[in-house]
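Internal QA ticket QA-208
Title: Verify multi-chain structure generation after dependency bump
Assignee: T.L.

Test input:
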Amino acid sequence: MSTSRVLIIDPEEASLQFLAKEIRKAEYEVITASTGKEGLILAWRERPHVLIIDPNLPDISREEMIQKLRSDRRTARRLFIAFSSLSDPQDVQDTLNLGYDHYLTKEADAIPALLDAIAGKESQKPEQPIMVDRPEKPTKKPTKQGDGKLIVLFSAKGGTGTSSMCANLAPFIVNNQPDARVVVVDLVLPIGSIAHIVGYSGPLNIIEAAEMSDVEISKEYLQTSLPETGLWKFQLFAGSPKPDDANQLNISRIPVMLNLLQQAFDYVMVDLGRSLSKISLPILLEADQICLILSPEQGTVTLTKIVCEYLESKGLLKEQVYPLINRAVGLEGLTKSEIEDILDMNITGSIPYMGHNFSLANNLHLPIYYKFPEEVATLSLRQAAQEITDRAIRFKEKRLLAI
Ligand SMILES: Nc1ncnc2c1ncn2[C@@H]1O[C@H](COP(=O)(O)OP(=O)(O)OP(=O)(O)O)[C@@H](O)[C@H]1O
Ligand SMILES: [Mg+2]
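Actual output:
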């Protein structure tokens, strides 16, 4: 863990500098902020593994600070240590209940316990109760990320077949792992299309669910209420049915719902379409695998390159990206190796052009594997699904080890 990044948010300059120096000595990368606002910006931009916060900040209340960090996907499951000059047991208890993992008081000899907490160890000096473990998890905000792998279907350009790929890859995940629970979430705004592809017309969708409270929308609720889709083998979290509905979407609920979904399902597949926005960027960065759908024309590939460079500048790793060529528009176009050269990526996934057969299957609400079991596209989808899940599992394990 010696390469972990630690963010210290402390308005007391002397305490901030002292802590930063001591933690750097232990070979951690340290970044600092002296106000809550500055701290939030750094937390979301730099994505530290550990956050040490003096909860008594001048500009943001202690409740709001931890709530903002715990409800944002970029920081929800980081390690939070409260470092405060208040030692009253009630303050300690209240602060822990807000969602901190540890509480330490500012004392000269707090550093060893602090370093233990950063390294995820128990304090070496239990007789000195400067470190108090949180007695119970806060009940309101989900603080623990589930084990579910987050697979995001994304494209730099519309019409490349992102939704069709999302719906048609999901059944193969279940084929490959029959016990796996898979949910497909349609986050394409202003209007989703996966419900149309699979033929679902029920009332439950992301807009409705975003209006529900934490009590109503639990992990169990999602497991039991999201509709099954028969031959498609996944449960569906349908998207916005009409553009008007999308305008009503309470976007602050999306990270909370995705977090719960990852607790409720083994695989959470999200159709993001070509959205690159304030809502979608954190989802992309948090993905265990982004299935990047490409059509093989120059324009799409060039746009894809620009988008990938942007995402990499925000911290996305190449190993998070699985490029998938989908020949949705015809047989011509760039070859795989031409696309690989432009993107500087190795591409193994490629779905052939299926002509009218693809739309035919979509119109009949039937999966490709079922309608055209012998087609090359079926084999290609199966192989791509296998590669994506393998990579997602590997990435998730690596990420969990790094935390
Ligand atoms: N490999 C393929 N061969 C033939 N047709 C395809 C193929 N893949 C997708 N299509 C067709 O391309 C059209 C667009 O597909 P889809 O709606 O999945 O794209 P999308 O990227 O999700 O579009 P949007 O940007 O509107 O969300 C559909 O009519 C679909 O049937
Ligand atoms: Mg779509």
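Spot checks passed. The first strand starts at residue 5 and ends at 9.
Status: verified.
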